[in-house]
Write a structure and sequence with these properties.
The protein contains twelve helices and 14 strands. About 30% of the residues lie in helices and about 25% in strands. This is Pimeloyl-ACP methyl ester carboxylesterase.
């Protein structure tokens, strides 16, 4: 299990210490001795906190060295990186995201030259031969037609306007009673969920691939900041309402990375939580404090500075520095500590070498709540790329687990009503 840095105390989660308030207050004022003394650490803490909650453009950090014609078609020579040297099927996005190619198996790898030669399975858009830099992605397909499926373009009413979504029917003639709602991760888009659609379709589920606030498709939040799940869950609730209005009786939430945190919040807070039959979460954020501590350590940020950043997100005094409209309650999103409160059947798929969201809290959640949570570890997939390295295993696990969860209930009298469910009480 990955090592984790724990909060100093429960009280620290609720309020800042006097010393920390002095540092933040002095930094805000800009002229006090406390501000001068604490400015350096506070400035770094502010930068760290803002990075976590601020949407940012993708960085083209993968070098493309050459495109050649091999015996079996196009091949690409890439600089060897921890991503590009993993076998499987992935994507290269280039030309600022306007270009997209699906990259296949490794043909050869030269550790001495630090290069890797891979097959190019398909170029969906752009001129790959002209690309010099790109970003690597697990979102393999550009749209539903790339996997041979028809989709309806639909709009979901959310705060601030309408959020575009794809609706892919399992059977074009009639709505399915259970829908899969795909919730992508931080910095990703609805493309991420296309990898799961065929599995959902095999199970007879209609699939709704949604957008949510600040993802570039849905309306942005007024503060333009991620809520790390504390605000985005309302957009998932709107998607559930759309599903119920269009024939669904129940839903299964699929979530990747931060999409997992959003799905957990939806299952906890939504007035429609009774119709959420199951959660399928891939590399989910179970505990944001753990994730932030991990990134602080990776970036050699001192522990105290990292804690300042966490506390700024959760305390009203930090709002002017972070830009958040409201504090983020990280403790409420710590499902490792709240394990016994999770009452929705949940499948967790997580690679043990995930260097972005450590797998430890996923394993711990399953250990603490085995009645509700099943944990399936992968190896060598890094972050949210479990399907990419072993699609057959991923699909087999999800299909088998969901077949059990979707089986008829033992007591039909306890099933969810066919019509719109009664709200399960006000959302917290």
């Amino acid at each position: 299990m990955a090592s984790m840095t724990r909060p100093a105390s429960d009280a620290a989660e609720k309020k800042l210490s006097p010393r920390t308030k002095w540092a933040i207050g002095g930094f805000l004022a800009g002229g006090t001795i406390a501000g001068l003394v604490g400015a350096g650490s506070s400035a770094l803490a502010v930068y760290f906190a803002r990075r976590v909650i601020t949407p940012a453009a993708r960085h083209e950090d993968q070098e493309v060295l050459a495109v050649i014609r091999g015996d079996n078609g196009l091949q690409v020579i890439l600089a060897a990186t921890p991503d590009s040297t993993i076998d499987g099927v992935f994507s290269l996005f280039f030309s600022g995201g306007k270009g997209h190619a699906r990259i296949g198996r490794i043909v050869s790898y030269s550790p001495a030259e630090q290069t890797v030669l891979r097959e190019v399975e398909e170029v969906y858009s752009g001129e790959l031969s002209e690309a010099r830099r790109a970003w690597w992605s697990g979102a393999t397909y550009p749209d539903p037609s790339a996997i041979g499926l028809a989709a309806e373009d639909v709009d979901i009413d959310v705060d601030g306007g309408k959020a575009p979504a794809w609706l892919i029917r399992a059977d074009a003639s009639t709505p399915a009673p259970v829908w899969a709602i795909m919730v992508h991760g931080r910095g990703a888009t609805r493309l991420e969920g296309l990898r799961a659609v065929r599995t959902a379709r095999d199970l007879g589920l209609d699939s709704l691939l949604i957008s949510y606030r600040n993802d570039g498709l849905a309306p942005s939040a007024l503060d333009g900041r991620y809520g790390l799940g504390s605000t985005e869950w309302r957009d998932v609730e709107a998607a559930i309402e759309y599903a119920l209005d269009h024939g669904a009786r129940e839903v299964v939430l699929f979530g990747w990375s931060m999409g997992g945190a959003i799905s957990l919040q939806t299952a906890d807070l939504s007035k429609y939580r009774q119709v959420i039959r199951a959660l399928v979460l891939d590399a989910p954020v179970i505990n944001w404090v753990d994730v932030m501590a991990h990134h602080a350590e990776m970036n050699r940020i001192p522990y105290t500075v990292g804690r300042y950043g966490q506390l700024m997100l959760g305390h009203p005094l930090g709002r002017r520095l972070t830009g958040l409209a409201a504090p983020v309650d990280l403790k409420a999103m710590d499902w490792d500590s709240r394990a016994v409160e999770l009452r929705t059947p949940t499948l967790l798929i997580h690679s043990v070498d995930d260097d972005y969201v450590p797998f430890g809290p996923s394993a711990s959640l399953a250990e603490k709540n085995p009645e509700m949570v099943t944990f399936e570890p992968f190896h060598g997939a890094r972050h949210t790329k479990e399907w990419n390295v072993d699609p057959e295993r991923w699909e087999r696990l999800v299909r088998s687990w969901l077949q059990t969860q979707l089986a008829p209930r033992n007591n039909p009298g306890q099933s969810v009503e066919a019509d719109r469910p009664v709200a399960a009480g006000p959302a917290a």
